[in-house]
Amino acid sequence: MLVHRDEQLAHLRWAFHACEKHGHGQVALVTGAVGSGKTQVLETFGEWAATAGGQVLSAAGSRAEQGLHFGVLGQLLHSARLKPDGVREVEELIREVALAVPTAEARSGAAPEILAEALTADGLWAPLLRTAFDTFLTLAGRGPLVLTVDDLQHTDAASLHCLLYVTRRLRNARIMVVLSEATTLRPAHPLFHAELRSLPRFTRVTLPLLTVDSVSRLLGEEAGAHGGRGAEAATPDVHEDARRILRVTGGNPLLTQALVDERDRDTNSAPDGGARAGDTFERAVLDCLYRHEPGVRLVAQALAALDRPAAPELLGQLLDVLPDSTVPAVRVLEGAGLVHAGRLRHPRILLAVRSDMPAEERRRLHQRAAEVLHENGAEASVVAEHLVASAWTDGPWVVPVLRDAAAHALSTGRPDHAAACLRLGGRAETDEDRRNSLMAMLITARWQVNPLAVTGQVSQLVEAARSDGSSRATAVSAVPYLLWQGRAEEAAEAINDCGADDHGPASHELRLIRLLIALSHPDYLGTVREDPGSWMRAATAANSGSPLLQAVSVLGNALMPTGGVDTVAAAEQLLERHHLDSGSLGLLTAPLLALLCAGPSDRVVAWGERLLARQGVQHIPAWRGVIRAIHAEATLRLGDLEAAERGARLALEDLPAPAWGVAVGGPLGTLITCTTESGRLFEAERWLSQPVPAGVFRTPVGAHYLIARGRHHLATGQHRAAAADLHRSGELVRSWGIDVAGLFPWRLELARVQLGLGNATHAAQLLREQLQVSRGLDDRTRGRALRLLASTATPVLRRKLLSKAVTVLQGCSDQHELARALSDTSQTLPQAGESRRARLFVHRANQLAQGAGRAAGLAQQMQRRAAPGGATPTAGSPPDASSDGFETRDQDGLLSEAERRVAVLAARGRTNRQISNELYITVSTVEQHLTRVYRKLDVKSRTDLPNRLMALAEPMA
User: What DSSP letter does each residue of 355-412 carry, written as one string?
Assistant: First the structure.
């Protein structure tokens, strides 16, 4: 499909009409890059000229036939469809002249002027040229004659000489010569062009690359051809598609049409999508390259190997040619849209070029690129990319470069790149200590991609650490991965022989590792409790020498709180300071987990979303999975079961369960709780059937898992099994000294078991103990405990406890537990003669239970709550208040905006004078508003306002 060539075709048509009208010959040269549509322009013009009364003779040059003399002239004569007698004389003359051309000149494809000099003396040229021209004149007598020659740059020299002879004699002949020529490294046939330009009726027609408007027209026409709105539909979306296509093709018509064809075959694929070898676009790229000279293709291959902007000097060194000789090739590639800003324009072009290169040639180019870049002082990561691609390690500088590149890749969050460098460096390194150091770095890199992949290497590193000659760094580097696998004894043994420096980085590293062992396996907490100041000071240090030590120290303070450290503030400061740092995800999991332990789940969710949205997080599946697991547990504590379950599932997709090691209890515990609370008990059992390592129960994650499993046992009526799991969880955290109420609410869950068994007294005792635990008692745990404690209290005390539970739960944003508290409150109101309020509370509980992500089981339970008189509210509908003489209208419209503001402030405990000052109204107006509020809400004092506003879904904050 010809697009954006109307102006060029119009110029050719004008020249044809001038030739026809005035009887003067015309010569036009159509130029453009390879793939710019020159052939289509010639064919389109030729078809038009034939319909306009002209005769069209066509020919095309070919690189393969450039040494075949008079090949193009022969094509022109044969296309005239003359009778055999009409061309016999010309053909005989062509054979005579061709036989007279020297063999050496025939092989070299001599220029037309050389051939003329060689043959003029023999008198062979003149008869042929006159006869050929007379033949064309005879044809022009029937009507305008159009001679089109495509790919002039490949036309044989003898035919060029004949064409020049014809063009010099067009002054009074109705013959139009239209030639096309592609851009080449050097001007093809310069003397021929010099003569063309001197002709009086010579025109040069240039075909530019496509623009956004022209590609938009093409897309519109393609849409019309497939039943769409057609070319007139130049919508913003079409223009945006056109811009994306131009970013890939550079406006080259051949590449653009290929990409549009792909787009039509698969309308769901984006124009600048990922590379797909073997597609139409890749074939078009190769077609474009192979229509250029070999020198252009070599430069394209060099650019594909480098994959970055390259100066002529660098390209020259890479190809072992003079730098200036690469400049024309780059210019030709830029003109074809393949190169932009000194590099191949798009990854799909790069892939097409690379896939066409033999493997050995690719390796050779990458090796040479590594050597040249290293000699020119390129960064280690740039050089290492080519070393890995070539698998070459013979240079003495190779291993240090690979090590530096791996360190940079790890610090920028690309463990996959680091692993590739370290694998190659490990094979080349001969020194044992340095090889162990490379292995330690390789384990760090590979673990972040797939923890299962490093099991064998960790064991090798441990063996190396036990040898007499191993360094302390080798021993320390193995510890985190031993802990992940549950091999705590080996981890402790690895650092037993390490001394403790008082100052410096080595001291920071040892304190970090000892604290990490203790926090992950609390059996070892005694070792850090002996000297708490050594790590507590790091938690609040303004400029810590080791951010990792500071991060783990904040987590330690969350599990073992001290009066001098604000865990939440310290954790948020660390997150704020480092959340934009490259390669910092591992560091940030510790303060994020500390926030989860300290209670503000909404802040954990907010920070988790920020970290998961970071660029490059997709390259680090291990840390991404850990952050998702923490985020999912925080979301669960906010009552959003659906989002929590989705996050935990994604965490197990990032890392399959076996890859989690002893940390697998985290996401599994969250999933078990979500499915249990949602009433999908069989699905919860499926998650429970996932095997977990025995070492899980030596970690805090194991206590979390036991609580989740205990909740499921309770939901299925297995009270003894539930009690056993919860008792075990409590024993573990108490023995470790990390009995953090919000993190391990085992007493609360055990109280639920006792309530199920009818042991209200024992349940009340457990709940009072839970409320008295000073460490980590967050609002969610306090609200849940108050609600359960209310079920063991007298009616009067029960209402007070539930009122307090509602207020507390409203502040912690757990809508799931708030719905339960409201539902329980509704059951106490009919006994006090407040049936209307009871129905409003049930309705509000229904709304919360049926909200996005809430448990279906809870919603059904809310629906079963019978209103006074035996009526059961329908889910999603307001209670029927008309039977009590209540005004029938939307419950949220009971209070005016002014009344609502006064009521909320009064519910918060403000006096009338304080409300007056805050809202800039008189005290009398406040009193009038409160009078109406009391009447509308049927309350007698402001102490009843909080629960009443909650029942009406009035915001309290």
Answer: HHS-HHHHHHHHHHHHHHHHHTT--HHHHHHHHHHHT---STTHHHHHHHHHHHHHHT
Q: Which of 349-358, 517-526, 802-811 has the lowest mean pLDDT?
A: 802-811
Global pTM value? 0.75
Cα(697)–Cα(684) distance, integer angstroms: 20
Closest by Cα among 887, 898, 908, 889 to 950? 908
Element (H, E) at 161: helix 157-167
Overall residue count recorded for the chain in this entry: 957
Do the Cβ atoms of 189 and 160 come closer than 8 Å? yes
Radius of gyration of the chain (CA): 41
Using DSSP, state whether 881 is helix, strand or coil. Answer: coil
Rounded to the nearest integer, the mean pLDDT of the chain is: 84
Which residues does residue 820 pair with via DSSP β-bridges, in sequence order?
Answer: none
Distance CA 59, CA 76 (A): 6
Q: What are the CA-CA distances from residue 325 to residues 292, 340, 375 (Å)?
A: 15, 19, 21
Q: Is 40 helix (H, G, I), strand (E, B) or coil?
A: helix
How far is the C-alpha of 736 from the C-alpha of 521, rounded, in Å? 9
**Residues 837/948, Cβ–Cβ less than 8 Å:** yes
- How do residues 455-478 score in pLDDT, each as one tens digit? 888 988 888 877 755 567 777 888
**pLDDT tens, position by position, 933-942:** 888 777 777 7
| Alpha-carbon span 954 to 913, nearest angstrom | 23
Which residue matches tokens 């159509």? Answer: 30
| Per-range mean pLDDT, top range of 126-130, 444-448, 528-532, 790-794 | 444-448
What percent of the chain is modeled with pLDDT above 70?
A: 85
Of the candidates 291, 257, 357, the residue with the CA atom closest to the CA atom of residue 248: 257
